[in-house]
Amino acid sequence: LLRLVIKTVPPLLPGRVQGKITVKTSSTNAPVLTVTAFTFVPPIITVTPSQLSLPPGPLAAATSLSVMIRNDSTNALALSDATINAKGVGVDLQAVKPGRLFRATLTFPQGFKVPQGQQIEFTFKSSHPLCPLVKVPVTETAHPTASPGPPSAATSPPQPAGP
């Protein structure tokens, strides 16, 4: 009877890891055994949603968007310096379950529009050494494209004059 024990060696980075283990045997029926091993390490910090999306601006009214921040590490987490690189946007970071679960609410003022060519990010610092700074992109959904309607009299080609 053969027993194979596979163990991971911390620290492990978040993500999926897979590998094949090949063992030579003295058996003529199975001279080589191949075992596939895999592991999944969840992210240390999970932000949901991972990206914020604003309606097309300028905003008709003040708009609030929230993200939940979950700590999946074994130690309590502290968050600080929550900010956004856009003028006039309010940021409120609260601990729902201190050290484990947080809510960030961003309040965009009436009339806000993402400046053309600018990338807006909500950022915060964490006490975890592998995730010292977390960035959450903020995008603006595109304006719906207008579907072409029937041609108007102003854009119709001239009609030949009748008799």
Account of the 3D structure:
The chain is mostly beta strands and 163 residues long. Helices cover 0% and strands 45% of the residues. It has no helices and ten strands. The strands form three sheets. It has a four-stranded antiparallel beta sheet with strand order 3-5-8-7, with no helix packed on it.
Q: Which spans of ≥5 residues are poorly predicted at pLDDT below 50?
A: 152-157
The biggest sheet, with number of strands, parallel, antiparallel or mixed sense and barrel status, is:
4 strands, antiparallel
Mean pLDDT: 86
- How far apart the termini lie comes to 105 Å
Residue share in β-strands: 35-45%
- The count of helical stretches stands at 0
Strand order of the largest sheet: 3-5-8-7
- Total beta strand runs: 10
Overall outline: elongated
